[in-house]
Specification:
CATH topology: Growth Hormone, Chain: A
Shape: globular
Number of domains: 1
Helix content: over 70%
CATH architecture: Up-down Bundle
Radius of gyration: 20 Å
Order of helices and strands: HHHHHHHHHHHHHHHHHH
Low-confidence stretches: 204-208
CATH superfamily: MFS general substrate transporter like domains
Mean pLDDT: 86
Strand content: under 5%
Number of strands: 0
Length: 408
């Protein structure tokens, strides 16, 4: 029988790493009420826990990506898994909210930041023809983590308390995360292979070692436009992960139902990552990404009108599909544009844009609610940002191997 191409083992390992990291990050909604009650804090104050974490794990990609290019992904991602476990364990002992900021927010944010971009970049180097599908499957780990994380955390909190839950999650994260990290290899050449398992190297501009250097990519107008579009989109992208459960409770659906809504985002996200990554290989990754931007704008408007349970559930699933498609396509499209030579570093710098969005969006939503008692202004702003981002990304050229090597 033909041997399984090791690239798919890389995909499975990256899937697990992202499931662990983002499962921990996006289950935060399940802890919102417990932290709010424990520390007698406002929604803005509790939102800051996630905002700091989100800012760090996206911004840190600008450091962890180049570092992984230099010393290899195993050391960097392994350190990230240890930090996630450490952050959860220390947060379980917090006696004041500022201690949660210093433990959960800081250590988990650093841990996901050390693991996310290097894991995504490894996958994009192992594939060319199937890059969209492979990246989509790998980042589906984020969707699965989102889908199972919040309900699992809620069940554990109901069984014990939020402190014990953090300790249980710390142990599980360490075992799963380090086990998956041990399977990683930076490039197919490290195992005497070529991308996609081909008998010969891929075309120039597409392979693991071709493309622009980090500095060349960052100086290009193409990168500037792509970066701005991702940053604008992300101003609203992460608001539902923090506030959808509270929104559901505000509309009489109950906190538990709100946690289920977070899980439904995970279901949609998983579908989007599995399906859209492969379809984008046929339809064109740029065209598919553009559709994700405008699809998110439409769903923001739907959320504005959704107050019944079924309408909110539909929002959660479809929003998850578009969100998952964006996350699946971003690293693949970046490697299409700039090649694999400095993929980790370029993706890492690109993700500082979503890092700003992950910090500002949920925090602004919490403060806006504290001031006005409504999420309406924030949801309208989310839709406008998504439309502006979509118009920006429409100006980008179609990716070609020549473009990835700096030739027009």
């Amino acid at each position: 029988m033909r041997r399984l191409y090791y690239g798919w083992v890389i995909v499975g390992a990256a899937f697990t790493i992202m499931m662990v990291g983002f499962g921990v990050a996006y289950m935060f909604a399940a802890f919102f009420e417990s932290l709010e009650s424990e520390f007698a804090a406002s929604r803005g104050d509790i939102s800051m826990v996630f905002s700091i974490c989100g800012l760090l794990y996206f911004m840190l990609g600008a450091v962890s990506g180049p570092l992984a290019d230099r010393i290899g992904p195993r050391l960097v991602i392994g350190a990230g898994m240890i930090l996630i476990a450490l952050g959860l364990a220390l947060a379980s002992q917090a006696t004041a909210l500022w201690q949660v900021y210093l433990t959960y927010s800081l250590a988990v944010g650093l841990g996901v930041g050390f693991s996310y971009v290097p894991a995504v970049a490894v996958v994009t180097r192992w594939f060319v023809r199937h890059r969209g599908a492979a990246a989509g499957i790998a980042v589906a780990g984020i969707g699965v983590g989102t889908m199972i994380g919040a309900p699992l955390a809620a069940a554990l909190i109901a069984w014990s308390d939020w402190r014990t839950t953090y300790l249980v999650l710390a142990v599980a994260s360490l075992v799963l995360g380090l086990g998956a990290t041990a399977l990683l290899h930076a490039r197919p050449e490290d195992r005497g292979l070529h991308p996609d398992g081909a008998a010969v190297p891929a075309a120039a501009g597409s392979g693991a070692g071709d493309g622009l250097a980090l500095g060349e990519a960052l100086r290009s107008r193409l990168f500037h436009v792509y970066y701005l579009s991702a940053a604008l989109l992300s101003l609203g992208l992460f608001v539902p992960f923090v506030h959808l459960a509270k929104y559901a409770a505000d509309h009489g659906l109950g906190e538990a139902t709100g946690v289920v809504m977070i899980s439904l985002i995970g279901v949609g996200s998983m579908l989007g990552r599995f399906l859209l990554g492969g379809l984008a290989d046929r339809w064109g990754r740029l065209a598919t990404m553009t559709a994700m931007y405008f699809g998110l704008a439409v769903m923001d408007l739907w959320w504005l009108l959704a107050d019944a349970g079924w309408a909110l559930a539909l929002f959660a699933v479809v929003y998850g599909v578009f969100y998952g498609g964006f996350v699946a396509l971003a690293p693949a499209l970046t490697t299409d544009y700039f090649g694999g030579r400095a993929a980790s570093g370029i993706i890492g710098v690109l993700y500082t844009g979503p890092g700003i969005g992950a910090f500002v969006g949920p925090l602004a939503a919490g403060w806006t609610y504290d001031l006005t008692g409504s999420y309406t202004p924030v949801i309208l702003a989310m839709a406008l940002c998504s439309v502006a981002a979509g118009l920006l990304i429409m100006t980008l050229p179609r990716p070609t191997p020549q473009l990835a090597n700096g030739r027009t």
